[in-house]
Amino acid sequence: MSVGVLLVTHNGVGPDLLKCASRVLPIMPLKVDYLQVPWEGQAPEILASSLRSLLRELDEGQGVLILVDLYGSTPANVARQVEPGRQVRRVYGVNLPMLLRVLNYPQLDLNELAEVAVEGGRTGVITDDG
Length: 130
Prior knowledge:
The chain is an alpha/beta fold. The chain has helices spanning 13-24, 44-58, 74-79, 96-103, 110-123, and strands spanning 4-10, 32-37, 64-68, 88-92. The chain has a domain at 62-94.
């Protein structure tokens, strides 16, 4: 058993991140899926239902790491609509380095993986003066 990973993002972001990650890692070491939140808006109860369904599919008993694109956004609000008792950690500001770092540590537990996600996102953003 391992931690599942759910990307909760604005339309287009999650599938594209996952597509890029699958080019780097053709075999996904963790169960990963995404929930796109449409720009036009969708009924909150439909989005919450979709989120809960995906969490059930991804959770093998070790919890689910939810990677959200933007804190305070509609996807962030959707990501909070978790069933009571469901073990999740949310990390905001998902980027490709964060996702790849998470996928490289499938043996970690949920709390450790959340820390790896934050570190991967942070160290994946650099400046190059040359």
